[in-house]
Amino acid sequence: MICFCSCHILYSCDITYCFLTQDVKEKNAAKAKLRRLCEDKAKHGEAPKLQVPAWLHKEWKQRDHLEMAMEYRDCGFDKEKFIKLRERTVTNEENHKSTVAVGWYSKEDMLKVLHWNAKKIAGAVKICEQDPLHLIRTEKGNCEYGGEEEYYVTTRETGALEQNRLKKDERKEITKDDSEEPMPEVKLDRLNKDKQRLLASQSSAAMRSKEIFTKHCDSVLQKTAKLRSLQSDLAKHYDNTDEVVRKSIKALDMDIGKLDDSYNKLTEVMAEGERDDYAGGCLGSKPCAKAVQNEAKIRPWNAKRHFKKIAKQEQD
């Protein structure tokens, strides 16, 4: 019911307020209490006078007032409870990404090509025997060379650790004593915009560096697998007592060793890049450049063509 007083004329805004629901009135009252709590009490020209920490005052200016007012109301308009609720905690989440190199190898290949000891070979065979359908080429035709059983084993596994910072709704920040007068805020809008543009350009450059790094690592891994396969073919199809064959296998073994060293250096620098978000462009480092140079010198298809040519001359 609306009561009109004979000595006052109600303005349109007053009439509108009379028709507001109880819920809206409570929300407006909560927003008013929040404003009185978070606003700066200092007069013009005076140092800031705050009843809450500086970070909460800044958050109140930037965030939705209604949302914060409802939280303040849920705390029973208790200042300490509200400040504690508005705190956030920062946690770390770790992700481990790994790259795995696998292939088909017989027991003899594991010994001569991979240079595994007897204990490691026995362990690999035992694991493969647990799933023979997918991990063993049997003598019934699945094996490509000579009916010898081959096992699908992992020859290398490398990885990089990533840390992602996750922000929750609850935050805990170290603040100065509330009794100390906070420093007046300085507006640096232009500086913030320049900083955002710089971060955006660095993010784009970091993504490009990461893509290039991944391609280099994959290339080295593929060439290593091709050279191992070529070495295995030479050991199976040619006489190991022949001087040319032995020298060829030894040369391949040296090339594989160089590629292994290159891959290790690449993964080390890549792990540093993951840790530092590829800041500064880690592709310019000397270890990485040397690794890429060694990898580029070795051409598996050239090596294979060269050994085929030698084998043909020996047959003639």
Q: Gist?
A:
This protein is mainly alpha-helical and 316 residues long. The chain contains twelve helices and three strands, in the order αααααβαααββαααα.
* Main sheet specs: 3 strands, antiparallel
Count all strands and give the number: 3
Order of helices and strands: HHHHHEHHHEEHHHH
Number of domains: 3
| Secondary-structure content class | mainly alpha
Could you please describe the fold and organization of this structure?
By secondary structure, this protein is mainly alpha-helical. It has three domains: 12-87, no CATH class; 90-168, no CATH class; 190-316, no CATH class. It is 58% helix and 11% strand. It has twelve helices and three strands; from the N terminus they run αααααβαααββαααα. The chain has helices at residues 12-18, 22-38, 54-62, 65-74, 79-85, 107-112, 118-129, 132-135, 189-237, 243-275, 286-297, 300-315; strands at 90-105, 136-137, 150-167. A three-stranded antiparallel β-sheet has the order 1-3-2. The longest helix is centred in the C-terminal third of the chain and has 49 residues, at 189-237. The radius of gyration is 35 Å and the shape is elongated.
List strands and helices in order, with pairings.
Elements: H1 12-18, H2 22-38, H3 54-62, H4 65-74, H5 79-85, E1 90-105, H6 107-112, H7 118-129, H8 132-135, E2 136-137, E3 150-167, H9 189-237, H10 243-275, H11 286-297, H12 300-315
Antiparallel strand pairs: 1-3, 2-3
Helix pairs in contact: 2-4, 9-10, 10-11
